[in-house]
Amino acid sequence: MVVLLGCASFFALANSLMTVEQEMEVASKIVGPIKNDDNCESCHALETEAWQNTRHFATFKDRHRSEEAVAILETIGERSMKRADDCRQCHYTSEVKNDKLRASFGVSCESCHGPARDWLALHSKAGGDTAADDLKWGTGKAEDPMAREKRLGAAQAAGMINSEMIYDIAKNCFGCHTVPNESIVNDGGHKAGSDFDLVAWSQGEVRHNFSSSAGAPDSPTNREATAEQRRRLYVTGLMVDLETSLENISRVETRGGEFHKAMIARANQARGRVDAVLAATSIPEIQSGLAKVTANIDEGATVDAATPMALGDATKAFLGNHDGTGLSAIDGLIPTETKGNPY
Fold this sequence. Notes:
Helix content: 40-55%
Shape: globular
Strand order of the largest sheet: 1-2
């Protein structure tokens, strides 16, 4: 999944770089966090401020200037990160301008929540009715539950990934934090991924839970995840890490290459952490999903494409059946430090 441009359907179908045609389709639906009409900032000012204090935002200004980036670009025969397909899809949010793809922002709102053109109006209208009144920012807690369900359902059907869709958001995260491009690792010297943990990163500098926080709408705080939510995030992160790594292994072309070895190491590490969770507490859905996964993958192992799909199904079943209560036995496994400080 490779595009922090934000199209979950593409990401779920293939954990690989989009074609230019697919990227054009996604980019044509990008609203943009700032500058453009009907942008995200117009309603989500605090969330935008939080984003502007993250590396996701800063990458647009400085990532291409780093020594590492310059070296990789030279190796792969490219001159610009913002114009190179291999780079642009993960490091930037692109728009279509004059019928061409243009990197316009760093990793932004729609990178995680999906390109908004099709669902922008639906997600802010009472009951998901485009003819209804706009909901004012921060008033969600007073919304009728059935109307809220209808509104979010309509927006989700049109492509929105909201904060409750943990699996989908995790797929977007790991789609780039586990680099899906084999050649850029083997031939370009790019790292095979980040030391990414869903709890540590989501509760750090990228945290932006204002509208649902105490004090909203007048004096909102940046709400932390509860202990129950952290447990769900942690298990989901481990499973999606394993799923994504196995997806990459299933499509590897150069066995024994740097990319292949890195994905094997990552998959084995994630599997070990999942095993530690299961040693601490029983989660039948996860145990069932692991049934076909070899405990210690080596370079000779073959991963069937159905295996990571089964892990995804297991993760979604876990999220559907567990609200985080009853999983306190894994609290000691969950990171307490965050990636950066929340805004």
